[in-house]
Fold this protein.
Amino acid sequence: MRKIDQLISEKGYVLADGATGTNLFSMGLESGDPPELWNREFPDRIYLNHQNFITAGSDLILTNTFGANKFRLALHNAENQVQELNVAGAEIARKAADCCERTIIVAGSIGPTGEIIEPLGELTKTEATSSFVDQAIALKEGGVDVAWIESMYSEEEIECAITASKEAGLPILLSSTFDSHGKSMMGHEPKQLVELAERYSPEIIGYGANCGIGASELIGSVLCLAKSRKNHAMHLVAKGNCGIPEYKDGEIVYTGTEEIMAAYACYARKLGATIIGGCCGTKQEHVKAMADALEANEMDCPIELDEIIKSLGEMTKGNIIMVEKYLNPENSSEVSPVNPRKRRRRRLNN
């Protein structure tokens, strides 16, 4: 049995980590600079970020390799460092995990190329797959337990990353981002992610939602995923942003509180998520609050739209419509949105 399956079998869930960019900014990373280069330049800071999350209660940590493919690295004249940066990122996380007395899962983060695959763009599937193969093999060499494919722009790019992870011999966790209209960047609904992921089982062992525009929206997406799933042996992932990003006093801050993130974690667990963590804006203290709340398991989490909004914050009109559609499919043409707010733009990688 894989370590992650064993741990979930014993505990009922695993708690993932929080943000990479947000926490590295507090350590000196400048806006616009690629955090992946720190795997070689400041490995001690990357190690500390992993260690902080493990101390807070994380059972799963993601490598600092989200943008470590040749297309993203080429923007910083580092396209020839794919193997070096991915191995280093995996080794740092592996070291942090192995220094802990309890079992810690290391997930190799594989993010989008930043390019659009043909016919809409110029990048070929062969080129995309090749870039992901280089990354996945390096992550495997560095010691990751699973590949974590996240925030891909299209189904075609997801499939290229899946092919690459399979070639590297890594089990796969797949996570997509759903925006204020409840769909992915290319207009895919949650049920389409479920269909894609379940089609690639057993290579894909779990799927879910990450990033987005706040805890309430993320839980809405997880609810839609949970309503669509057929293969309940696969893990369900929830890794949402810590509230909404706002610009204050010259820096980006997130509106999420420890209390909101604790409630979000419990809602995710109530919906059946077995891998729960935070994305942009999520710091050590938020993960600690999530760990405590999940362990206590005392929070009432009614799966009703009004109650989710009351506990976790407002939800966009688009997401309300999407959630209502999955909650009440027979009445989906007669949706009456409640408590909508203005659409906010999502900031990635914070």
User: Anything to note?
Assistant: DSSP finds 14 helices and ten strands in the chain. Residues 333-350 have pLDDT under 50 and may be disordered. The longest helix spans residues 125-142. The longest strand covers residues 204-211.
